[in-house]
What we know:
Layout: E1 8-16, H1 22-30, E2 48-53, E3 57-63, H2 73-88, E4 91-97, H3 104-116, E5 122-127, H4 137-147, E6 153-157, H5 165-175, H6 193-208, E7 217-227, E8 233-242, H7 247-252, H8 257-274, E9 277-286, H9 294-299
Parallel strand pairs: 1-3, 1-4, 4-5, 5-6, 8-9
Antiparallel strand pairs: 2-3, 7-8
Helix pairs in contact: 6-8
Amino acid sequence: xxxxxxxxxxxxxxxxxxxxxxxxxxxxxxxxxxxxxxxxxxxxxxxxxxxxxxxxxxxxxxxxxxxxxxxxxxxxxxxxxxxxxxxxxxxxxxxxxxxxxxxxxxxxxxxxxxxxxxxxxxxxxxxxxxxxxxxxxxxxxxxxxxxxxxxxxxxxxxxxxxxxxxxxxxxxxxxxxxxxxxxxxxxxxxxxxxxxxxxxxxxxxxxxxxxxxxxxxxxxxxxxxxxxxxxxxxxxxxxxxxxxxxxxxxxxxxxxxxxxxxxxxxxxxxxxxxxxxxxxxxxxxxxxxxxxxxxxxxxxxxxx
Length: 304
Ligand SMILES: Nc1nc2c(ncn2[C@@H]2O[C@H](COP(=O)(O)OP(=O)(O)OP(=O)(O)O)[C@@H](O)[C@H]2O)c(=O)[nH]1
Ligand SMILES: [Mg+2]
């Protein structure tokens, strides 16, 4: 009989309030921009798998939308997706942003997972440590431990800088159940190129627009065409869906300047991701209330 340690494999849900750094962390671990990241809350709208495989284990990370009090149907679906990911997961990674106070919402979330998922290993990540002084970290660790005394680990790290990721991976490797890999070892995400194209455009809309506009915007890919040959390129037609007539001129900008800038930035990101030239054609369409319309949410892949 071999005395080699058994292979471990499982689902790891990345959970936290909006803006905690969940998508930054999954990108850092996977080494590719599979999830969009912006300084605005509620950036992630659906579940995103990122798969990390090594000789001893396979960690199937699930990036989730931030847990918040939702107003419209889209918000409620997003939060439902996050809770569903926690229910399905083998291990929970609960992130908090240490640059912000441990507010009522974050406390309630930590207690909720400690109670409802008490049988599963939970790892608390104190993220953005690059932004605070070391002495301020200890009280935060103590507070987190008080809220969830039974957690498997409490790990301060910086998802952005990629520091202290190793202790997280070690704690995860110990927490995963034994089992055969779920995905082939060269797989690293479930996100199709088409879906990523829509997300990269939405990321630029989030970065360029303010107030309620980003939250009432979605992106739909109408055509994704791959041209083979010596001059290989990908041509993408994307529609930016806005929630109100008055948002349209704002997204277009004076003389179409803003949409042009959004398109350029998204195209550069996509060329880097896809490793070939990209032609990106953008349109803006008005569809009031799309974010409360169950059928539209289903068509956009945003139903829970
Ligand atoms: N300084 C610093 N900033 C970080 C770190 N991790 C994430 N950020 C920033 O925090 C912001 C939010 O990051 P995201 O990864 O989009 O956060 P999220 O938890 O996925 O947010 P939602 O998708 O809205 O739930 C971005 O501006 C990131 O660059 C970190 O370790 N240090
Ligand atoms: Mg996110």
